[in-house]
Amino acid sequence: MGDDLALNAQQVAGVKADRELPVVWAVAKGSFVNKAILVPSALLISSLAPWAVTPLLMVGGAYLCFEGFEKLAHKYVHDKTGPVAQQQTPVAAVTAVNAINAVTAPAAERVGPEIEKIKGAVRTDFILSAEIIVITLGTVQDSPFVTQVTVLVGIAVIMTIGVYGLVAGIVKLDDAGLYLSQRLGYSPVRRFERSLGRGILWLAPWLMKGLSVAGTAAMFLVGGGILVHGIKPLHHVIEQFTQKIGGVMSSIAPLLMDAMVGLLTGALVLAAVTLFKRVRS
Asked: How far is CA 196 from CA 178, 203, 211, 236, 278, in A?
């Protein structure tokens, strides 16, 4: 949930104040569509081909690393051709994006950066939602089918409401701060409200910048973590290494390893995609 929150809160950066909540709502609807696709798919795959769950999740993890590394490359290399990640979208995520296009915003506003932000957020949400659904399925895979369905649907709904409810609150922090900073009166309560409002206004942009950095880092941590857990020999090597270290570093080292694997995977996938595009063109 923390990864999902950090990744999605940054998507609203640069959106006009009166469009922030509509954008969050549009992405939330896209997230519900993602989970409406993923929950039945996970149950079907678990029943017919349980061996395919881990490979599919690893593909999603590799895509997440690729998208994160593409963002870094685009930022520091100043690639003027636009994000490659927008052209490498999972088929089911495309379905989710198309399903919400008609309800994301009025026709005059469904163009430009806003719709691209929504599409990017829905794509990323698809991978994170898949991770959540598969982890949840793993906890109830030996339970009766009705229990599996109930738990998966319940978690899907709770996680979506929780994440996007928090995102909506974060993006409206500045409005709350402005309201409090303009409260009239000279009582201690009014003075405190104005001070609190000014503090929120100072904090809000730093919080959004922090979430943007955390969101990119989360791509590598989540994607790398999925890949490490899917490659059993690598997972065992990292486990043995961290056990030898001991102490606080035994908790930090696995995260650093996941991030390194994520960065390396993202670089390799981006290089392969770039080479493929050049050869094709």
From this structure: 10, 10, 21, 49, 54
Instruction: Give the CB-side neighbour count of residue 25, counting CA atoms within 13 A.
Output: 8
- Which pair of structure tokens corresponds to residue 243? 């056990």
Residue 12 confidence (pLDDT): 64
For the stretch 121-135, pLDDT in tens is 888 888 788 878 887
Contact (Cβ atoms closer than 8 angstroms) between residue 179 and residue 197:
yes
- Position of tokens 């989540």? 222
Q: Are 158 and 133 in contact (CB under 8 A)?
A: no
SS3 for 42-99, per residue?
HHHHHHHCHHHHHHHHHHHHHHHHHHHHHHHHHHHHCCCCCCHHHHCCCHHHHHHHHH
Closest CA to 97 of 163, 29, 40: 29
> Could you tell me if residue 14 is left (phi over 0), alpha (psi between -120 and 50 degrees) or otherwise beta?
left
pLDDT of 80: 47
d(CA 152, CA 157): 9
Q: Which residue has the higher pLDDT, 105 or 195?
A: 195
pLDDT at 272 over 80: yes
Confidence of residue 174 (pLDDT cuts 50, 70, 90): confident
Alpha-carbon distance of 210 to 213, in angstroms, equals 5
| Torsion angle (degrees, nearest 10) of CA 111, 117, 119, 121 | -160
